Amino acid sequence: MVSFDELHEQNHQIAELAKTLSYLFQDREMCDTGVTCELFDRYREKFDAHMSNNKAIYSTLLTNNDNSVRHVVERFIEGEKEIKRLFKKYSDKWCKDGLHIGDHDAFLKETDEMFELVWNRIQAESEQLYPLARGRRDAA
Question: Domain spanning 4-139: which CATH class is it, in words?
Fold first, then answer.
């Protein structure tokens, strides 16, 4: 299992990339640059890798006899599925072979919503999921 320090670092990197991309995306011309596309691809890759690392935490916590713990984990698993579904829909619309921005205002709105969704997830992991996993690890 990845350490909590590594998970927090991944969350930090994801948030940092989102902030940088949000800034760059404000300028319509920046959306079409190779550098911006590379940064966005990095953001997607880091997000996917991070979600994969959470699976070990889910597995550990699902073996807990406490129904409330299992309920929290199941909620995170369902949330992850929904975020992945929305991210795929977003990527299919805007990111086939690079960024394709026809309607800049719509792109900005949907991008801000996606970044906010991921940010809320990162916060929830740090405030709810990781403390549960730490408590389980410390009790073992």
Answer: mainly alpha
